[in-house]
Q: What sequence folds into this?
């Protein structure tokens, strides 16, 4: 009985925090907040179009651990290992852009805009710049006070659809949301180590994964080889082989042609529960864009902190001194 009451109370608190988010949250306290974020993302996008994929990955990895609270941004110390240094997050990048945005916002309106909102808005803007939908983002998140590498447990690239789905359902997301959010791979890359087994010795068979287009497998094998490498020397390939920097639905068309690079991506087109969604998005680009905007807004509401919870960090990489925790 007591356990059920705690669960119910937690759900109510989470709903209350999400309800506190609203479009234009900073309209009176920092009117230029979203303009400043947009300008700096646009500046970076002008020289590095891969920033869209970087921010999408950062946003996803942040929200799926302790909720969208910017805990992924915290640097480790001599005594603590933060989320940033957990294995799945070693390929996350773009932190310096968040630092640049935070510095500009602190100059304009000190201790006002959270790092969590910066990630959310910057990701939206990067998707828009790459050709995706421009959707309105409710803001008002606050930054978390905990970042622990031991808490990082994310769905891996070799899972089946039934294995991956519980990770999403645990965060209040549906099968449709999962298929939609994995569509972010339309602008992503993957290190060879994440799919190398599919190219020549899939699950110990001595043969390539039969669910991968043979010509693609042969081409990737030439790029990746069979030897494993340290992450910093492991080659990367585009997950969307055609429109690699454009946020569109071509990723789903490639899945239907057995050209998914990651096993979980290809399984989306093969599993009977998710295949109809893949087909729908492959044939209807507007459906994908609309669903993606909705799924991103939904994901950005996961376990958010509002009101007096958490803090507004002065520096996204470190927690505020305890004397400043009220901000």
A:
């Amino acid at each position: 009985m007591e356990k059920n009451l705690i669960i119910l109370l937690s759900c109510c608190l989470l709903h209350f925090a999400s309800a506190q988010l609203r479009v234009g949250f900073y309209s009176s306290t920092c009117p230029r907040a979203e303009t400043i974020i947009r300008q700096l993302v646009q500046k970076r996008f002008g020289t590095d179009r891969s920033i869209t994929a970087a921010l999408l990955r950062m946003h996803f990895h942040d929200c799926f651990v302790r909720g969208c609270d910017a805990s992924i941004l915290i640097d480790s110390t001599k005594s603590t290992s933060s989320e940033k240094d957990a294995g799945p997050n070693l390929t996350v990048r773009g932190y310096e852009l968040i630092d640049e945005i935070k510095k500009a916002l602190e100059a304009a309106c000190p201790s006002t805009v959270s790092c969590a909102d910066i990630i959310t808005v910057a990701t939206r803007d990067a998707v828009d710049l790459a050709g995706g939908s421009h959707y309105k983002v409710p803001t008002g998140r606050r930054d978390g006070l905990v970042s622990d590498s031991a808490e990082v447990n994310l769905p891996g690239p070799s899972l089946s659809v039934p294995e991956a789905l519980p990770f999403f359902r645990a965060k209040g997301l549906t099968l449709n949301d999962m298929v939609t959010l994995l569509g972010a791979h339309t602008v992503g890359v993957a290190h060879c180590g994440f799919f190398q087994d599919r190219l020549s010795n899939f699950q110990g068979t001595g043969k390539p994964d039969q669910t991968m287009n043979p010509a693609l497998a042969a081409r990737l094998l030439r790029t990746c080889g069979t030897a494993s490498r340290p992450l910093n020397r492991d080659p990367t390939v585009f997950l969307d082989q055609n429109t690699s920097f454009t946020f569109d639905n071509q990723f789903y068309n490639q899945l239907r042609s057995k050209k998914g690079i990651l096993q979980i991506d290809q399984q989306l087109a093969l599993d009977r529960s998710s295949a109809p969604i893949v087909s729908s998005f492959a044939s209807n680009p507007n459906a994908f864009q609309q669903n993606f905007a909705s799924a991103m807004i939904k994901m950005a509401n996961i376990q958010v902190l509002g009101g007096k919870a958490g803090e507004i960090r002065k520096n996204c990489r470190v927690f505020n001194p305890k004397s400043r925790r009220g901000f």
The beta strands are 189-191, 236-238. Residues 2-20 form the longest helix (19 residues).
